[in-house]
Amino acid sequence: MNKSMMLLLVVLCCACLAQTIRSNIYYPIEVGNKYTCIFTVHATDSSDTRYYETVDTFFMGGYKTYLTEAMRASDSLFDTLLTQIDSLGVYSLVNFYRRYDYFLMMPRQFNIGDTWIISNIETTYDIGGGYRCIERHSDYVFETSIVESVLLDMGTFYNCLKIESASYQTITIMFHSDTSSDTLIKHPPGYSICAPNVGNILSFSIDRGETVYTSVVIDYKIAGIIESEKPQVCELEILAYPNPFNSSCRIDVNRSSEIEILDTKGRVIYRSKDAHFIWKPDRNIRSGIYFVRASNGEVSITKRILYLK
């Protein structure tokens, strides 16, 4: 074999090793995606089924944001998850003390072996109860590798992406006496495995008390292009804006109707006979998904709204 052929093989090998991976392959997100997972707490050997469905999109801070509903089978409690996509990658938004922290779950493009800092957070907030404030500095790191095959109860997934994480936190607590206490916390590592064109199929984590948690996919459905579906013709129409909102939301219904606002458990929390009004949630109303229902005796329709404190 001559030198030029050897050089070509080396170049080809390096190109394969440095093959660019796109986030939309291993982190597909679309309205209509559904996942069913078994979440297990191994210390107590207890498991619960959890259902996830991406149900809506909206723009937050100028970027497209996906709203996913999560429900626990054990108590039917709902939670909401927000995922945002921008030019850098896919972010998970976590509500923390009335603000959102952004976690880079996957860059838009990356190579195997790459590492990235998913979040570097410095926050100061008042917690009351004798403390003045807490300053929190967090540094989270993800690292990637390829797993040839992963065998689960529902089948074998090939060419999977393993994402390992480690995190560190420095916490400074300020007391009324102007003295401070610093604490360095290293969280145990965890990992998740993503299958191409499916997403996260397996997660493993350990808390600081060394309790092991796993989440395993047992069923999933990846949506097609749902925008082509024809909307149903209806006499009633509900307009709600802004949506999502953080203080008040204007509700407009095109016909005289009885209007109710319900939570995710179907409980009515507000009623109005006015077709045009502004809803200002009480202080005890939590952030999350709510439904506006309009009924005129013959037709009943609902519209989903999102309240963000």
What does this entry look like structurally?
The structure is a single chain. By secondary structure, this protein is mostly beta strands. It folds into two domains: 22-50 and 90-225, YmcC-like fold; 230-307, Immunoglobulin-like. The chain has two helices and 21 strands. It has helices at 3-17, 23-26; strands spanning 20-22, 34-41, 46-60, 63-72, 78-85, 89-96, 99-107, 109-111, 115-125, 131-152, 155-175, 180-195, 199-206, 212-221, 238-241, 249-253, 258-262, 268-272, 276-279, 288-295, 300-307. A twelve-stranded antiparallel β-sheet has the order 7-6-5-4-3-2-14-13-12-11-10-9. Strand 20 and strand 21 form a beta hairpin.
Write the layout of secondary structure elements.
Blueprint: H1 3-17, E1 20-22, H2 23-26, E2 34-41, E3 46-60, E4 63-72, E5 78-85, E6 89-96, E7 99-107, E8 109-111, E9 115-125, E10 131-152, E11 155-175, E12 180-195, E13 199-206, E14 212-221, E15 238-241, E16 249-253, E17 258-262, E18 268-272, E19 276-279, E20 288-295, E21 300-307
Antiparallel strand pairs: 1-8, 2-3, 2-14, 3-4, 4-5, 5-6, 6-7, 9-10, 10-11, 11-12, 12-13, 13-14, 15-16, 16-19, 17-18, 17-20, 20-21
